[in-house]
């Protein structure tokens, strides 16, 4: 089975819960405040097009999406999130699944400082969000 656990749907219950800043699931995704001028936390670009950050009016914060804005990135630094993913994987294995084809694994870990690309940068950005 294909397994993509770099991100979920923005319609998934986990993400919907994380939109509440007081939610225990808030840290299951990568939320950051806007810069002082209201712009995104950094200048990272989505692999699909445009900014890798989407403003969420309910949260009053940006969430990271390296792919589609409909696919917010999961925060693999969060131990509870990792355990929830492992539980889901074990469920499938207990059902008799032989294994997974893991997709976009290099994107799980991001540079924790979320640095801007250098001015005029137009190269391979994987070193910023594929650690």
UniProtKB/TrEMBL annotation:
<feature type="domain" description="Glycosyl hydrolase family 13 catalytic">
    <location>
        <begin position="1"/>
        <end position="119"/>
    </location>
</feature>
<dbReference type="Pfam" id="PF00128">
    <property type="entry name" value="Alpha-amylase"/>
</dbReference>
<dbReference type="InterPro" id="IPR045857">
    <property type="entry name" value="O16G_dom_2"/>
</dbReference>
<keyword id="KW-0378">Hydrolase</keyword>
<protein>
    <recommendedName>
        <fullName>Glycosyl hydrolase family 13 catalytic domain-containing protein</fullName>
    </recommendedName>
</protein>
<dbReference type="GO" id="GO:0004556">
    <property type="term" value="F:alpha-amylase activity"/>
</dbReference>
<keyword id="KW-0326">Glycosidase</keyword>
<dbReference type="InterPro" id="IPR006047">
    <property type="entry name" value="GH13_cat_dom"/>
</dbReference>
<dbReference type="GO" id="GO:0009313">
    <property type="term" value="P:oligosaccharide catabolic process"/>
</dbReference>
<dbReference type="InterPro" id="IPR017853">
    <property type="entry name" value="GH"/>
</dbReference>
């Amino acid at each position: 089975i294909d397994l993509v656990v770099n991100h979920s749907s923005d319609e998934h219950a986990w993400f919907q819960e994380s939109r509440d800043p007081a939610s225990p699931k808030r840290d299951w995704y990568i939320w950051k405040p806007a810069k002082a001028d209201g712009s995104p936390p950094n200048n990272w670009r989505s692999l699909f097009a445009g900014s890798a950050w989407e403003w969420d009016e309910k949260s009053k914060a940006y969430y990271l999406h390296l792919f589609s804005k409909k696919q917010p990135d999961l925060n693999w630094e969060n131990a509870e999130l990792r355990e929830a993913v492992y539980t889901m994987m074990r469920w499938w294995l207990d059902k008799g699944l032989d294994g997974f084809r893991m997709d976009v694994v290099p994107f799980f870990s991001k540079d924790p400082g979320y640095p801007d690309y250098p001015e005029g940068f137009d190269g391979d950005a994987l070193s910023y969000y594929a650690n």
